[in-house]
Design a protein that fits this description.
By secondary structure, the chain is of the alpha+beta class. The protein folds into four domains: 55 residues, no CATH class; 221 residues, D-amino Acid Aminotransferase, Chain A, domain 1, CATH 3.30.470; 83 residues, OB fold (Dihydrolipoamide Acetyltransferase, E2P) (Beta Barrel); 87 residues. The chain is built from 17 helices and 22 strands. Strands 2, 3, 11, 12, 13 and 14 form a six-stranded mixed β-sheet that branches. Strands 5-4-7-8-10-9 form a six-stranded mixed β-sheet. A four-stranded antiparallel β-sheet has the order 16-15-19-20, with no helix packed on it. A hairpin with a 4-residue loop joins strand 13 and strand 14. It is globular and about 80 Å long. The two termini are 38 Å apart. Bound molecules: zinc ion.
Amino acid sequence: MKIMNDQVLKKWETLVIACKNYYIDSIPTGMSDSEYDTLERKALAEDGFSVRDYVFQTFMQGKRAKNAYIEKIKKTKVEGMSMLEAILGVTSGKKLYWDLKYDGSSIAIYLNPRNGTLKRIISCGNLNLSSEGIDQTAKLSGHLPKQFPKGIVAIQAEALVDVNRIDNPDRARQKANGLVNSVYLADEVKSLLTLRAYRYYVDDSPEGIAISRMDYREVLGSFETVRSRVDGHIMFAPADSWTTEELQKMPGFTETDCTVTSTGTFILDGWVGYTEKGECIGALKFAGAGSGTEMLTTKVKSIQWNNQVVKGKDSWSANVIIDPIVIKGCTIKKPSAGSVGKMIKEKITPGAEVSIILANSTIPMVGKTVSPGNGDYQWPTCSCGYNMSEKDVYGSLLKCGNPGCSERLGRMRKYLSGLKNIGELNLGPFLVIDRFKWENTDVDINKLLGFVMKGDPDSYRDYLMGYMGTDLQKRNMELVWKSSYQVLYEILIGS
Ligand SMILES: [Zn+2]
């Protein structure tokens, strides 16, 4: 999207407010539906201004959001028999539909059930761990049909990469996860990602009730398939489904982890069953797929430190370069070291033998340490010139130990320059005291700024330090308060 200039924004201000009211805040728009539609079309025609893109990118992109409706699917591991035998075992006389248990990145599509249009798209993450996801509306809305059947409130879908569209099919799953979770890569999202809808949830309107009585395959089939206008590849499609009888006539079809469907070839880790009316009865998983219990070990070759200060954090993270190993079809070369504290404790250094796990089933990470390494952490040097070492480990993080660090000052200045006014100052992202929630304290920003205005650094420090509980928090505050005072002084008083 083009960066909108102030003039254009000013011109469509009423429209932006109405759009935000409706899509983000779920309150009345302040105008009639037809007035809204007319304005939206005019903005696009006159200035190429897509108000929905603007509103989602400005207010929602990357924000955490609660998922509703979407339920966890009960899984059963298939062992000692073929997948088809397991499917036949579940069926017991009822008509059931089966579709692929896609192995990509789960998303929830929320609709306005009154007119079948999109409200929001949220990633589902790991439903075992939380019901929260990241808003993906701006990134993925272009994949969807303009309209869905009325009466549907939510659709569960999987974001996938067709294995025929990338060089290394083993990486299809990681690629899909990467594309959904990255803030960048908009072009790749458009050219590679396919959304496959497999489950729907209805409201209790007459249309919703009618859908709940309809045949599962028929409902899915009524979702429009969307093709890319550039190369014709499929951007959105309902999932293919098969009845038990159909699968029986296709020997071997259910026994592979990469399946050809009418709209693409995808990686799967099992099959999911539905009743005729679309109620999910559970999933059958291939044994060995995604169990996360495999103990594969390898040798650490070196440590790679990553400066996270540019990302608004106040720390450095580590990856370990290992002898590559393959887990669930993915070649892992550079897993995350996890906590720096744990790295020190277990001497995860060159020569160490470690196991690699997929945390949250997607992020490669060092698991157990079988034997320690040579103790050389290959500590990084900050651009301010400071050489980091073991004494700069703060809990699970490594931080530049220079209280006047130029990177930290830069990060704080950048944070302040993003505020509309100093009253918006939030000590969380400004100071970055890990695992400390300022919102649970009675800290008074005006009082704090008052110390800066008076040129009283000691009171400023004492006031902040008074809130620090643990020794770790106190050390952390010692490290950052002076820089924070300095940059506040710069903007309040002038340097
Ligand atoms: Zn530094």
